[in-house]
Amino acid sequence: MGKLIVASNNYNKIREIKQILCEYPVDILSMKEAGVDLDIEEDGATFLENAYKKAKTVYDILEHKFMVLADDSGLMVKGLNGEPGVHSARFAGEHGNDEKNNKKLLNLLKDKDRESRRAKFICTMVLAAKYDKILQVQGEVEGIICEEERGNNKFGYDPLFYVPEYNMTFGEMSAELKNSISHRAKALKRLKEEIGKYI
């Protein structure tokens, strides 16, 4: 069985990737599980720059022996001029504090109209594979930021991201539904065929 190293230690992100790629005979490991103890600074100006940096850094550390997948994703809100964007994970100043990030987002959008609350999730993925091939894809999904959290799935901005077609937030969706329509799912679907070539 081949190995795919995800350039992340984010449990929720890796769980989603495993669920979406479950049909492939590949062992999906976090950086920590692959023996890479490193905190890669995401200092790029775009999602692509951050994803590329993470993929290439881990791929080089592992001496090009395994495929490495990195993503950088975030939320862009129309009424906030595209913020939080690349700063989504540390919007409130502390990396990965979903509660504080959501609270800040709600405060900034207080009394804003529906048009200002229009938003989209973006996921840019970079795969470093055999023969030093670098592949990049992007997936997007559009929605609206709610006025309060909805749903039990508290991953990131999910309880605030409402998808009109389904009359639910990501936080209210089953894992199966979210993983079929999300920005990460769309990006991974575009990579699936390529990943299959290297397993």
Automatic annotation (TrEMBL):
EC number: 3.6.1.66
Enzyme class: hydrolase
Residues that bind Mg(2+): E41, D72
Gene Ontology molecular function, alphabetical: dITP diphosphatase activity; ITP diphosphatase activity; metal ion binding; nucleotide binding; ribonucleoside triphosphate phosphatase activity; XTP diphosphatase activity
GO cellular component: cytosol
Active site: D72 (proton acceptor)
Annotated family: Belongs to the HAM1 NTPase family.
Cofactor or coenzyme needed: Mg(2+)
Classification via PANTHER family: INOSINE TRIPHOSPHATE PYROPHOSPHATASE, INOSINE TRIPHOSPHATE PYROPHOSPHATASE/HAM1 PROTEIN
Organism ancestry: Bacteria, Bacillati, Bacillota, Clostridia, Eubacteriales
Binding site for substrate: S8, N9, N10, Y11, N12, K13, S73, F155, G156, Y157, D158, K178, H183, R184
Keyword terms: Hydrolase, Magnesium, Metal-binding, Nucleotide metabolism, Nucleotide-binding
Matches recorded under InterPro entries: dITP/XTP_pyrophosphatase, ITPase-like_fam, RdgB/HAM1
GO biological process, one term: nucleotide metabolic process
Organism of this sequence: Clostridium luticellarii
SUPFAM superfamilies: ITPase-like
Protein's recorded name: dITP/XTP pyrophosphatase
Functional note: Pyrophosphatase that catalyzes the hydrolysis of nucleoside triphosphates to their monophosphate derivatives, with a high preference for the non-canonical purine nucleotides XTP (xanthosine triphosphate), dITP (deoxyinosine triphosphate) and ITP. Seems to function as a house-cleaning enzyme that removes non-canonical purine nucleotides from the nucleotide pool, thus preventing their incorporation into DNA/RNA and avoiding chromosomal lesions.
Assembly, per entry: Homodimer.
